From TrEMBL:
Protein source organism: Dinoroseobacter shibae (strain DSM 16493 / NCIMB 14021 / DFL 12)
Gene Ontology molecular-function annotations: monooxygenase activity
Superkingdom of source: Bacteria
Pfam families: ABM (PF03992)
Xref: Gene3D superfamilies: 3.30.70.100
Segments forming domain ABM: 2-96
InterPro entries: ABM_dom, Dimeric_a/b-barrel, Heme-degrading_MO
Aminoacyl-tRNA synthetase is among the record's keywords: no
Protein name (record): Monooxygenase
Keywords annotated in UniProt: Monooxygenase, Oxidoreductase
Entry keyword annotation includes S-adenosyl-L-methionine: no
Length: 103
């Protein structure tokens, strides 16, 4: 398994707008080979910023890299710059390879 995580610092008062953008967008993920699951997580607010993280689980790194080069990826991210004013800085991408899995 391969996990990607984008961390977002959303300005206080912009939470509903941020969540609406995510909930209403067509991610096209379900059509991508190797996609397993997606979660948008809401964290604590501190110093006027609310933390969020999007977690996407993939079959493997190759599946994620294929997604980033696909038309589906371009379509899912086409309006990202139009909502940049709600963020306190750019998102931070982190990637993780699985070393142990329990089910």
């Amino acid at each position: 398994m391969f996990l990607t995580m984008n961390r977002f610092r959303v300005k206080a008062g912009q939470e509903d707008t941020f969540e609406d953008v995510w909930k209403s967008r067509d991610s096209h993920l379900k059509t991508v080979d190797g996609f397993v699951s997606f979660h948008l997580m809401k964290g604590e607010e501190s110093d006027g910023v609310r933390l969020y993280a999007s977690h996407t689980l993939w079959r493997d790194r190759a599946a994620f890299e294929g997604w980033t080069k696909s038309e589906a990826f371009r379509m899912a991210h086409k309006g990202a710059k139009s909502s940049a004013d709600m963020y306190d800085g750019p998102p931070v991408l982190e990637v993780f390879d699985s070393v142990q899995e329990l089910s």
